[in-house]
Amino acid sequence: MAAGPGLLWRAREYVDRSARQSPARLALGVFALVIAVITVLLSTPWATASGGRAPFIDALFTATSATTVTGLVVVPTGEYWSGWGLLVILVAIKIGGLGVMTLASLLGMAVSRRIGLTQRLLVSSETKVTRLGEVGSLVRTVIIASTVLEVAIAIVLFPRLLVHGEPAWTAAWHALFYAVSAFNNAGFVPTPDGLDPFVSDWWMLLPIIIGVFIGSLGFPVILNVANHLREARRWSLHSKLTITTSLGLVAFGSVVVAAFEWTNPGTFRPLDGGGTALASLFAGVMPRSGGFSTVDVGQMHEGTWLLLDALMFVGGGSASTAGGIKVTTLAVMLLAIVAEGRGDRDVEAFGRRISRETLQVAIAVSFVSATIVLVASLLMLAMTGLTLDRILFEVISAFATCGLTTGITASLPTPAKYVLVVLMFIGRTGTMTLAAALALRNRRRVIRYPEERPIIG
Length: 457
Known about the structure:
Protein name: TrkH family potassium uptake protein
Strand order of the largest sheet: 1-2
Oligomer: single chain
Number of strands: 2
Largest sheet: 2 strands, antiparallel
Helix content: 55-70%
Transmembrane segments: 26-47, 59-78, 84-111, 138-158, 202-229, 241-260, 306-339, 359-379, 418-440
Low-confidence stretches: 107-134
Order of helices and strands: HHHHHHHHHHHHHHHEEHHH
Pfam family, one: TrkH
Keywords: Cell membrane, Ion transport, Membrane, Transmembrane, Transmembrane helix, Transport
Main location: membrane
């Protein structure tokens, strides 16, 4: 009888000690553990539609893609996996969407029955909560809010799938799957044809667009806006930067994609005006990490691929279900460029001054991310005989946890698939933990060296 409490006590001590010594390592370990469990579940015979065991690389790749809410697949999701397999994938998406730090905090709660200081620090580093007393309620609020939004999207999609000819139970299941996948920016589709049959269907695609956009803003923005819905002046600087930059990127992406693909017979040309507008809006939102597509990305022009590369690399909001370097990182760097061009001493936005430390973190995250993409692209080029444009698109999509592809994922050699697995894991956890580490290590130095400016440019 004493073995149970003793084991629980040792587990609690291990978690608390790990959180004190290395919060980032604990978070990464928990995330890796989830991927391992999902891989085992997908490796069982009843996870596949055929009843056979999935190859290890396929199970690992799918588990990583689902848990990191990426959406890249090496097998057709709706055809290859059974109902049980799809349920496992859906659970992985839901867990992955909660976030690395929140997940680590939940583990601490389950073991110790409380949220200690270390777990509060873990969550606050991801969610940007400044008062540690709010973390406990925040975790519950995040879970409740995300679930409510997902159910709302599913309710809207359900009648449309019924009209499309699906049986009631199947329509309900697909509506829920699409809703969870959309809000968590996962990009997984439970049907063989995906969203291609709905390319001009506003009823079906608009809820998915809204779900992806809201999910990509991040929980700090969602909660901040919800608390001050009618008082925009009380929104935080983070919320204002995230929303304005996100809307700007969506508008820019939609217009430019439409301009590039308007006459492309493989994508937009067969569509009417309304269909083109919807497809353009859809294509402008999805590179933020949504990963869904209604047209064949592989048929798009190379210029469109390059634009999507840039949008995927930026990604969505901090502490969101989206990947990339985050829109606030881009906003801070653009504001710094404007300030330098004007000769201003401070970087300012919406009546607030942005600290130098924030700019340093933004530069570090961007440079490290670009370096990871460069190294991974070189490795992939060496492993495959594919062209740089397709490799770069695949690498950025994996690193930014987006899930869009030109169609090469399934045909990649096994070593290249392992590279993408590592990229998806780093993309979902790496830049976040790097930013948190840099922020937590910020400290005042008593002694400072004399200042001198090297020549730049």
